[in-house]
Design a protein that fits this description.
The structure holds three protein chains of three kinds. Chain A is an alpha/beta fold. Helix content of chain A is 53%, strand content 12%. Chain A folds into two domains: 2-120, Rossmann fold; 133-239, Rossmann fold, CATH 3.40.50. In chain A, strands 2-1-3-4 form a four-stranded parallel β-sheet, sandwiched between helices. Chain A has a four-stranded parallel β-sheet with strand order 6-5-7-8, with helices on both faces. In chain A, α4 (52-66) crosses α7 (97-108) and α6 (87-93) packs antiparallel against α7. The model of chain A has no long low-confidence stretch (mean pLDDT 97). Chain B is an alpha/beta fold. In chain B, β5 (117-119) and β6 (124-127) form a beta hairpin. The longest helix of chain B is centred in the N-terminal third of the chain and has 14 residues, at 42-55. Chain B starts with 8 loop residues before the first helix and ends with a strand. By secondary structure, chain C is an alpha/beta fold. Among the domains of chain C are: 73-312, Rossmann fold, CATH 3.40.50.10420; 406-474, no CATH class. Chain C has 22 helices and twelve strands. Chain C has a six-stranded parallel β-sheet with strand order 1-10-7-4-2-3, sandwiched between helices. Chain C has a four-stranded mixed β-sheet with strand order 8-5-6-9. Chain C has a two-stranded antiparallel ribbon with strand order 11-12. In chain C, β5 (225-227) and β6 form a beta hairpin. In chain C, α3 packs across α12 (268-279) and α16 packs across α18. The longest helix of chain C has 23 residues, at 35-57. Classes of the chains: A alpha/beta, B alpha/beta, C alpha/beta. At the A-C interface, α1, α2, α3, α4 and α9 of A face α1, α15, α17, α18 and α19 of C.
């Protein structure tokens, strides 16, 4: 099975370990992973900040990079959400019906990591071991745009040695929201404070999520306060075997 | 007073704006896959009704048809009672409403009525100002409402309830005594409407 | 993306309560610093969220009801002209009088004239979003007519010389101790031994309003639904203040937004299930009143229905935004919104706060505003909306219609250009690595504006020595 890795611009530039971990998990399960070098960014930040027209080139670039593959997998609920729910719309709004159709076709074969593992590969035990106390934050877009439901938790429950603790008010947004974190920094920080309070109440060593962006936000707050709790991406736990 | 209003320019302007905004817009079909027929009947239906009434702090008394009069006398014996003018439901000493003023109604302890229909799933009683219910003011101003519901008036769902009612009549849907949650979302039963609702279920 | 709809005026500025005077981020900053407000809102929204979840969970056909509600609203908007005419005919046939108003100013004038014609200088009011939107109380006051709010929360707001901060619970920002203080200060008939127990406070309101209800000559209400087929107006409430106003006065004036029309009596079966469970978290609210025109010998003998546009047709004219008119004012989206829960309703500067306010207010006013950005796009509002309004998508749409700051626009253009090709993107990644120079122990603690908004509260990890793409190429 030839699968294209859509690493996402954020993981590519800032969190390469997340990309490497995704490759490790997929290859361990016998998947042949390709990295289309033409990929850059899905354009979600542009669309969500009000720059739909500028996002058009990014949508076109994304479609061209991933069109040739059977499956596309990304370690991000948010970027997959953008591909599924925004790309065709951006093309349509720009009057490019042909691109909209191609974007729709790419979207139909694009999966967030936990979806791909559980729904396509039919695996919940991926042979991982991670002997740590971890709490899981379901990111908004994986939860409400993709409806991944409890798939990440089903994967985590099969990880050997993992002590999974429930996060209070887990489904509340961490306050990231892309440029929201800057445009409404005070409200974003207030949301982050509550998320951190809940994370700390679990006494977990690490907070896990399926999006590097939300983890950068939660982890940035946890680091600033020297809490000693680290952010860890779902892919990194699933890739771990020590 | 009821003459047709002048078809002023505001009316024409608003309608013209709507038509312009709607040009090329098609209306969708409305899916009605929600429940419109009962899935509960008989004894369980009445149990559901009672459960929901009690949950919203109504007092419920159940009695057999033959015991209705004595039950009502028992409930009402300490109160002054108003009843609709041509109601079949009454107790000794009750005042028939012959156009009592608001102030006079405010002096009366309780009102005794029947109802038009009731919905078990929501614990709702519907009044339609019928002969055993009277005009709306009499079931509003007195502080206690004693409402007789016959078993055959109870339906399961909201759609069945509305189907039994005539919208041309003034309707009041009552689900428990009046209540407010305006202070810290803390529910307080009994504000302006009757603070006590007693439902007599005749089964 | 920006479209101008000629002949489709927005709600005018200078009248009513839609146009806030401060940007959301600044107003929110003050609200966030109010510890009492944060506590009140956190407690209240958590309580109502739990109640809603419980009663929605009871209905196995909840999603079917939502889909029916969504389609009914879309059907209604598509046939709005005919349905309003049908409503007018039905109300008129049953002895009511129908008035039309293009905007807030016209609606206020109609109501003021109607009240004046009765000769009274005091009216009782049922809580109504439409009358708050158009600023009716102020217009009445200017005409020397006192409007007495009779809903407990509206009374708290009115006596506190305050503004509502929630669609359903306008005084949600006040706690019991604050309410007690307001009552003792503003109610001449309040018992000085009044405690802050909610029951006692509610009873104080009952005593205060009782005489007003029994003697009122004119009442003013809004409408939750107006049924075209039968001319039936519906008001959904809890306390009985609505029933008092709708039953006891001689004259009833109902102000209704044109989007509140519902095609048939049968259609009400959908909304009477969706609304109470979504708003107060009850299976059914304590009282719902319906009336069709005038009933001889029962209730007000004069009934006026004022149909108000005030920017609604401008919303209707935007294909990507018109479903904001589907809103049934349940406020479920406010209660689940993490932004509303923390910033509170006043920060939105409109009678319509929260997620629905962030899409409805800019569309009604047509004014440039920061409101569409007052959301992290977490999507909780869509899941809670009983008529499935896709608020997140609409926020995204509205952001694309707003004017952007020059520097931001240039930056986003530059980033889009860089991201437009993998070669340029890789070059950009190399530049980003310069960030390693300002990092200490793997983290960046301070960045210049506007990115300081991030580092004010959060660290940023140092960029890695090797990007994923370089690692892959070297593997």
């Amino acid at each position: 099975m030839r699968v294209a890795l859509f690493v996402t611009c954020l993981a590519d530039a800032m969190f390469p370990d997340v990309g490497r971990a995704t490759v490790t998990v997929l290859e361990r399960l016998g998947v042949e992973v390709a990295f289309p070098p033409g990929q850059t960014c899905c354009g979600q930040m542009h669309v969500n900040t009000g720059y739909q027209r500028q996002a058009l080139a990014l949508v076109r670039n994304h479609v061209e990079a991933f069109e040739p593959f059977d499956h596309v997998v990304a370690p991000s609920g948010s970027c997959v959400g953008s591909v599924r729910h925004q790309h065709a719309m951006v093309a349509r709004n720009a009057g490019d019906a042909a691109l909209a159709e191609r974007a729709q076709a790419v979207a139909a074969k694009t999966y967030e990591l936990s979806e791909f593992l559980v729904d396509v590969l039919k695996r919940e035990d991926v042979g991982a071991a991670y002997p740590h106390r971890v709490t899981y934050h379901p990111t908004c877009h994986s939860l409400r745009m993709l409806r991944v439901d409890d798939k990440p938790l089903r994967l985590l429950r099969q990880v050997r040695g993992l002590d999974l603790v429930e996060l209070p008010d887990a489904e509340q947004c961490c306050g990231f929201g892309g440029t929201f974190a800057v445009k409404n920094a005070d409200t974003s920080t207030a949301m982050l404070a509550d998320k951190m309070r809940n994370v700390l109440s679990t006494r977990a060593e690490a907070v896990c999520a399926g999006d590097s962006s939300c983890l950068m936000h939660i982890g940035g707050g946890l680091s600033r306060l020297r809490t000693g709790v680290r952010p860890v991406h779902l892919a990194e736990i699933l890739a771990s075997d020590s | 007073m009821n003459a047709r209003p002048p078809a002023g320019s505001a009316r024409d302007a608003v309608l013209a704006r709507i038509r312009a905004a709607n040009s090329g817009v098609a209306a969708p079909a409305v899916p009605r896959d929600y429940r419109r027929t009962p899935t509960v009947s008989g004894e369980p239906l009445l149990e559901l009704f009672v459960d929901r009434l009690v949950d919203y702090k109504a007092t419920v008394r159940t009695c057999a048809p033959g015991d209705l009069s004595s039950t009502l006398v028992d409930i009402c014996r300490e109160w002054t009672i108003v009843v609709p003018p041509s109601s079949g439901l009454t107790v000794p000493g009750a005042v028939a409403d012959d156009g009592l003023s608001h102030t006079q109604l405010d002096e009366i302890d309780a009102v005794l009525t029947g109802c038009a229909a009731a919905c078990a799933e929501t614990g709702t009683i519907a009044l339609d100002a019928g002969p055993d219910q009277g005009r709306r003011a009499i079931t509003l101003i007195p502080d206690r409402h004693v409402c007789v519901v016959r078993a055959d008036q109870v339906v399961h769902t909201v759609p069945e309830l509305l189907a039994r009612l005539d919208p041309a009549r003034p309707l009041t849907f009552i689900s428990g005594p009046s209540a407010t949650s305006d202070i810290e979302l803390h529910r307080v039963e009994g504000v302006h409407g009757p603070r006590t609702l007693i439902v007599v279920l005749v089964a | 993306m920006t479209q101008t709809f000629l002949g489709m005026p927005h709600a005018p500025a200078g009248v009513g309560h839609l146009h806030g005077d401060r940007p959301f981020p600044a107003a929110a900053r003050d609200a966030l610093a109010d510890t009492q407000l944060r506590r009140n809102l956190g407690h209240a929204t958590a309580t109502i969220r739990a109640k809603r979840a419980a009663v929605v969970g009871e209905l196995e056909d909840w999603e079917d009801l939502r889909r029916a509600g969504e389609a009914l609203k879309a059907y209604t908007m598509a046939n709005l002209d005919e349905l309003l005419l049908q409503l007018e005919t039905a109300v008129t046939a049953r002895g009511g009088i129908v008035h039309w108003a293009r905007d807030a100013t016209e609606a206020n004038q109609i109501v003021v004239d109607l009240v004046r014609a009765t000769g009274t200088d005091e009216v009782v009011k049922v809580k109504s979003m439409a009358t708050a939107e158009i600023g009716l109380n102020e217009a009445l006051a200017d005409a020397g007519i006192a409007a007495v709010e009779t809903d407990l929360a509206e009374l708290i707001v009115q006596l506190g010389h305050d503004l509502p901060s929630h669609i359903l619970v306008p005084a949600i920002h006040r706690n019991r101790a604050e309410i007690r203080e307001i009552f003792l200060r503003e109610m001449p008939d309040a018992d000085p031994s009044l405690t802050d127990e909610p029951r006692q406070l509610a009873m104080a309101a009952r005593a205060h309003l009782r005489a007003k209800f029994l003697s009122a000559k004119v009442a003013i209400s809004g409408a939750n639904f107006g049924i075209a087929e039968t001319g039936t107006i519906t008001v959904v409430e809890s306390e009985g203040n609505g029933r008092m106003c709708l039953t006891l006065p001689d004259t009833l004036i109902t102000v209704m937004g044109i989007e509140k029309v519902v095609p048939t009596w049968t259609d009400l079966e959908v909304f009477l299930q969706l609304l109470p469970r979504s708003s107060t978290g009850e299976r059914m609210n304590p009282y719902t009143s319906t009336w069709s025109g005038v009933t001889p010998g029962d209730g007000p003998q004069t009934f006026h229905l004022v149909l108000v546009d005030n920017g609604r047709t401008a919303v209707l004219a935007d294909p990507a935004g018109r479903s904001a008119l589907h809103c049934i004012r349940c406020s479920a989206c406010l209660n689940v919104c993490p932004v509303y829960e923390r910033a509170g309703g006043h920060a939105y500067g409109s009678v319509y706060p929260g997620p629905i306010g962030a899409v409805l207010t800019p569309q009604l006013t047509g004014a440039a505003t920061s409101l569409p950005y007052a959301s992290s796009l977490c999507g909780a509002c869509f899941d809670a909306c009983p008529v499935r309004i896709d608020i997140p998508s609409m926020l995204v749409h509205l952001r694309s219609t707003q004017p952007h700051p020059v520097i931001e626009r240039a930056s986003f253009g530059a980033v889009a250009w860089t991201m437009g090709s993998a070669r340029r993107f890789r070059f950009g990644e190399q530049l980003l690595r310069l960030g390693r120079l300002i990092a200490r122990r793997g983290r960046i603690r301070r960045l210049p504006p506007p990115l300081s908004a991030w580092t004010d509260a959060r660290d940023l990890p140092a960029p890695p020595a090797q990007t994923f793409r370089d690692w892959w190429a070297a593997r």
